Amino acid sequence: MPILLAAIPPADKIAATGGDITIQPLSHATLQIVHAAHVIDVDPVGQADFSGLPAPTLILITDIHSDHMDAATIAKLRQPATKVVAPQAVVTAAKLEGAIVIANGETKTVDGMSIEAVPMYNLTAERLQYHAKGRGNGYVVTIGGKRIYIAGDTEGIPEMRALKNIDVAFIPMNLPYTMTPADAADAVKAFSPKIVYPYHYRGQDPAVFAAALKGLPIDVRLRDWYAK
Description:
- The strands form 2 sheets. This protein has a 7-stranded mixed beta sheet. It has a 7-stranded mixed beta sheet with strand order 8-9-10-11-12-13-14, sandwiched between helices.
- Helix 4 (181-191) crosses helix 5 (206-212).
- The chain has helices spanning 71-77, 88-94, 158-161, 181-191, 206-212; strands at residues 12-14, 21-27, 30-35, 38-42, 58-60, 83-86, 100-101, 107-110, 113-120, 136-143, 146-150, 168-172, 195-199, 219-220.
- The longest helix is centred in the last third of the chain and has 11 residues, at 181-191.
- The protein contains 5 helices and 14 strands.
């Protein structure tokens, strides 16, 4: 049976130093971020349609699950100069030769961009089996003077709540793997990003998340990550 590719939702542009940052939602947990010469593909998988998009200069992978790590798609998109940044578990599982390994709590500069690896894990007892602390990474990428937080698969952990000066955040909300929209909104209130995108929300209603943040100085951007 053929894989159905998601239609590409419209891209957003965010004013930044050195030109606009383009945010391109693709599918579920997959997105592309473009600024000047930098093209960042986050968790590229086969269900996302990359046709017509620029080739990545950087690929970020958060975790080993198949909706985040797809070795065949990485190989297809990767160019000779493309950097790949991932936790050790991903590098080992996908056999990513030449990848830059980054662990929770580390910060590395790649192609002039600061990349901080933020923990992503489950807190709730019945969800601990899905994401153990230390295996996967969320990321804070600083580009064009903006701090962009990609949470990956996580609940509203203390490390998320302690984040500072986040301009754009991508926050998951699906069960049983991450958290509810209400829990996600509660976590977002703690670190107050300027812009937040609910993503990775299959089976949940992101409008519940948006309603919980209504009236706060947070721009909630609802996009259809599951368009066909």
